[in-house]
């Protein structure tokens, strides 16, 4: 059975971009593959969270994984920092990752623009840690959104380079995966780019948002003054709303508003109302489970412990074999 690995950075609440870009695939994959899903708390250190934020964010992601439908009996759910074997593989991979190629990564360039006062080495080697997460379990499929495509390409480079250096066909190549043919990019509500936590207040709809908050955010989404000619191309902020409609609403609803747009009869207020209601329908069951699960500390502890044991079993086997391949042998 093929192995699947994926993770989400522990920077707090999860949004619809995380859900439709990644978690929905996790939930489906757990029935078909040998799955490892983790909470990337080491990755979150690049932005220096306080100790109490770090802890509460890890808990939040664990709760939301479970609320979204991940089953700890079916897949291995774990916290990255509970599996120290990850850091050992990260060290080995760092020896064969070149500074030039890391500096050229799009995410590194974005980060140094976003946090010019904190260009730490962890940011530069972020894709190496990510490759370690993945190949630690010798995974071949990695469910992620479109923004992670380049990181997956780098993971393949590092896996192949290790194999070549030691002349050993050990790590398989990992590929980004989505059940539909294409990787997903969920837009935000600000009329610009993707939905994301760091893109400003109001841009992201969180799984834990109440119906009132969702309505408020969606009603504030950026629009234009409306189409002036039939079948005209939609400007980006309008296309974004239609893209969101496509993921949360029925095909009939999408078509209804698309026809209204194409015949210049659209009223954006109606579209937004419908979009907000369909987002509420999609998130309400998850939000209810978030509230229930977050109360159950002993269940969360049990899930994290059980996951750490299973993940370390797989990880320690890889590290044993990798040490042997590299030439670490006991006397
Ligand atoms: P992160 O935490 O930024 O995002 C988690 C997952 O959600 C997806 N995603 C989106 N998909 C579509 N549209 C959006 N607007 C959107 N926003 C977020 C991301 O593509 C991702 O799949 N580096 C990773 C975490 C990570 C990881 C790994 C992933 C660490 N190690 C190993 C896979 C395998 C990250 O920061 O994702």
Q: What does this entry look like structurally?
A:
The structure is a single chain. This protein has 331 residues and is mainly alpha-helical. It is 54% helix and 7% strand. The chain has two domains: 3-183 and 296-326, HUPs (Rossmann fold); 197-291, Orthogonal Bundle (Tyrosyl-Transfer RNA Synthetase). It has helices at residues 16-29, 51-68, 85-94, 99-103, 106-114, 121-124, 126-135, 149-165, 211-219, 236-248, 251-262, 268-295, 297-326; strands at 3-9, 34-40, 76-79, 141-143, 175-177. The strands form two sheets. It has a three-stranded parallel beta sheet with strand order 1-2-3, with helices on both faces. The radius of gyration is 21 Å and the shape is globular. 37% of the residues are buried. The protein binds tryptophanyl-5'AMP (TYM). Tryptophanyl-5'AMP (TYM) binds next to strand 1, helix 1 and helix 7.
